[in-house]
Amino acid sequence: MSTVTPEELNLLIEQTYKVENEFNELKASYAHLQDTVEKVVEFLPNAIWIVNADNTIFLQNSRARELWELLKLLEYKSEDYELKFNAKSYLIKSSSYKDKIMLSATDITEQKRKENLATMGQMAAHLSHEIRNPIGAISLMSSTLKKRVKPENIAIVEEIQNSVSRIERIIKATLMFSKGVKATKREVLWSELRDSIDMSISYYAYSKEIEFIFPEEEFTLNADMDLLDMLFSNFIINAIDAIELDENEEGVIRIEHRDDAAFHIFRIYDSGVAIENKKELFEAFKSTKVKGNGLGLILSREIAEAHGGSVALLDGKEKCFEIRIAK
Question: For site-directed labelling of 246, which of 16, 59, 132, 169 has its Cα 20 to 30 A away?
């Protein structure tokens, strides 16, 4: 039996320590790599799952944990595909490596919404162009007809004119939505704008007794006259429709004005029915009204923004919209 010399024993001990140190370094390096991978996966904007062959989860990020029910619906496919889940749209990608499958789900709801809006806007603009000519002819003929009909039939012709006026507003709003809002500003007197708003109201048919309370003081705005007329007319017509739906036979629409160093601030109140679905107020082609086309409020907001301002629905006992127009 051979004996181990002290030199050989020391060498063996040194090699053992060296192997142990290398193992510890390798273990630390692997832990660091695993931590880095987990942080990268967590940083990604989409939900990520890495699944073992037995369908157990090897790795996932917090977004994947929130969508754990979605994982049950996912399939491994060679091509990307879309999936709807809980009223949202997701783009699903998958790949495999050895005994693991990686699945990712990216929320594309907003992207799909914008694509749909763009398509709807293009279709609406095309239809608006097609409708414009016959509507112009009807408007011209109704004006001629009004001069020739018997007095008792004038109300019928005026109803035709009111309906044509409404269609013209829809066409104008649709074309503006498809092209975008651009303001050509000049000095506009409130009295000038008010006269234009009064004329727009006179073209709109309603059956109830409505009191309109507008600011009496004179002031000047740096604005696009036509765009502001559309903005205020949209809100007032919405208010008229809300009053028409109310159980009372009378109603009030009130506009208040104040200003500060930066903005003209208008608040529009009405006594009509409350707004039911506030989430869809500024969603294009979604209207909270039976007669709405879903463009009035979103265009009003874009008009205000084109004037350096904003539109907001305020919380309070009275229904109130606040409009800000930059000075």
Answer: 169
Q: What is the pTM of this model?
A: 0.54
Distance between CA atoms of residues 324 and 264, nearest Å: 6
Q: Let me know whether 304 and 197 are in one domain.
A: yes
N-term to C-term CA, the chain: 104
Pair (83, 23) in one structural domain: yes
Question: Based on the domain organization, do 197 and 321 belong to the same domain?
Answer: yes
pLDDT at 206: 85
Boundary-marking domain end, from 107, 131, 149: 107
Check if the beta carbon of residue 324 is closer than 8 Å to that of residue 263. yes
Q: Within 10 Å of residue 67's Cβ, how many Cβ atoms? A: 21
Is residue 235 classed exposed, middle or buried when 0-12, 13-18 and 19+ CB atoms within 10 A define those classes?
buried
Q: pLDDT tens digits for 192-214?
A: 999 989 988 887 878 899 999 99
Q: How confident is the model at residue 269 (pLDDT cuts 50, 70, 90)?
A: very high
Give yes or no: residues 140 and 228 share one domain: no
8 Å CB contact between 257 and 215: yes
145 plus 276 within the same structural domain: no
Q: What is the per-residue DSSP string for 143-198?
A: HHHHHHS-GGGHHHHHHHHHHHHHHHHHHHHHHHHHH------EEEEHHHHHHHHH
- Strand 209-213, strand 250-259: pairing: parallel
Q: Cα separation of 99 and 101, whole Å?
A: 7
Token look-up 């496919």 returns: 77
230 and 148 fall within a common domain: no
What pLDDT, in 10s, does the model give residues 277-309? 777 676 655 555 545 445 668 888 889 999 999
Q: Is residue 1 part of a domain?
A: no
**Is 245 found in the same domain as 215?**
yes
